[in-house]
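#struct-help
A.M.: can someone run this one for me? Single chain, 236 residues.
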Amino acid sequence: ERRLPGAMEVPIEQVVPDPSQPRQDWAHHEGNDRLADLASSMREFGVLQPLLVREEGTLPDGRQRYIIIAGARRRAAAEQADLATLPVVVRGEESTRIRVLQLIENLQRQDLSPLDEARAFQELIDVEELTPPRLAERLHISPQHVRDRLRVLADQVLADAVQRRQISMTAARDIKQLPDDEVMRFRARVQAGERLQTNDVAAARAQLASLGIINPRRKIAREKHTTFVSGTPTPL
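D.P.: on it. Structure tokens below:
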């Protein structure tokens, strides 16, 4: 059975986390909350991005065992959501090459939804072992565009809000550019069912600026530029 193009649907018990996976503690840094968000999303939308796996050995009943290369968090959330199967792409098989070609073809059509585009970016990064800048170079797009899409995709609350058209991808992107405390406030508003516009984010940014609060992300970027006064470099 196949649900996602290029992905094979297999029983969840055949998909096993890699014992050498560096991250074992999913509760760290609000991990439980994030896992619960992802599990809730899977109950509503299903698993929208396949896991990358490799074949290794068999289960006691003789069925093929698949070790996770990328997607351990998705597997944990799917188990929490009581899903019976998972979509997987097996590395090292013809299916991997076909999947890459499908993803690139779909991206080049430029008619994907913003979230489908983000998922395609992330899957190509996993399958091809690319960095966002290398992926951007391969697709002839800006690295910032790739990073913006991936940041929204990584925030399950905002990604789901975009999926159900509660907010636009542009609004979600702008929210992710705010300081962390402000991002949390917007996430709470989204979870309360509020529909948000880019103007709401712009108003929040203006309010922060009036209080002298500078987004640390923008401050870091600003400090990389210098101007010269009497031969001495001075930060702008």
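A.M.: thanks! Confidence is low (pLDDT under 50) at residues 219-236.
D.P.: also worth noting: The chain is about 55% helix and 15% strand.
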